[in-house]
Amino acid sequence: MPTLTYLGHSAFLLEGGGTKMAIDPFLTGNPLAAKQADEIEVEWIYLTHGHNDHFGDVLTIAKANNATIIAPFELATYCESKGSQIHPMHIGGAHEFPFGRLKLTIAHHGSAFIEENGTIVYCGNPSGGLITMDGKTLYHAGDTALFYDMKLIGEMNSIDLAALPIGDNFTMGIDDAVMATEYIKPGKVIPIHYNTFDVIKVNPSEFVEKVQAKGFAGQVVEPGGVVEY
Ligand code: NI
Ligand code: MN
Predict the structure, then answer these.
(1) In angstroms, what is the span from residue 228 Cα to ligand 1's centroid?
(2) CA 211 / ligand 1 centre spacing (Å)
(3) DSSP 160-171
């Protein structure tokens, strides 16, 4: 059974499939970070998109661990230009990795990395990820608006755990994420991408109560908390 440790914002440590993976490891500068970058030991890193609050410490972690970065093609190529090992993918594509299967979904959002001097680096399309390890499927939606094709994602996949952004302003807010849950039909849903910054402050218990009222299992996971699924 995979175990997922929430590191705050959209960042996770995923253990399963005989390996360890970090997802969107924004730790340095993340007020909710449950771990520091130098505490992360992984073989793989999945980046949903290039925004700095997801890219985070990816280059440092990849280098320290000799880890491979899985990301949409343009973003992966940018990481490669900085010296990282990569596995580029793109929307709609799946691949069988040693740990299991990863398929990229659409996400309605942006994807650029802002360098320290303010230069905007185009990173292609943003993604969500369907990660299947040990026969269990996690859907990390990345940053996204609500989109009706989530219904297709729910019909085509048996999703055991969904991590959905609820913070509003940059992504879905609570009510849109509740509708997303109805489309995706996950075994359990956990909220992400909230309360890191003032502009995305919401009450995650409101989200959980609303999904429970629709018959879904929802859980607020505190940074550092572990979810089995
Ligand atoms: Ni973003
Ligand atoms: Mn974000």
Answers:
(1) 26
(2) 24
(3) SEEEEE---SSS
Strands (E), the chain: 3-8, 11-16, 19-23, 44-46, 68-72, 85-89, 94-97, 100-106, 112-114, 120-122, 127-133, 136-140, 161-165, 188-192, 226-228
* DSSP code per residue over 90-119: -TT-EEEETTEEEEEEE-SS--EEE-TTSP
pLDDT digits (tens, 9 = 90+) for 85-98: 999 999 999 999 99
Strand arrangement, sheet containing 161-165: 94-97, 100-106, 127-133, 136-140, 161-165, 188-192
Domains and CATH numbers, the chain: 3-221 (3.60.15.10)
What is the structure's pLDDT at 185?
98
Q: Which residues surround ligand 2, an ion (CB under 5 A)?
A: 51, 53, 143
Residue type, 160: D
Q: Could you tell me the maximum CA-CA distance found in the chain, to the nearest angstrom?
A: 48
Say how many Å lie between the CA of residue 75 and the centre of ligand 1: 13
What is the torsion angle, in degrees rounded to the nearest 10, for the CA atoms of residue 39, residue 35, residue 65 and residue 159?
140
Write the pLDDT tens digit of every residue in 122-136: 999 999 999 999 999
Quote the tokens at residue 45: 């890193």
**Ligand 2 centre distance from Cα of residue 53 (Å):** 5
Residue type, 144: T
Who contacts 155 (Cβ-Cβ below 8 Å, separation ≥6)? none
Distance 12 CA to ligand 1 centre (A): 15
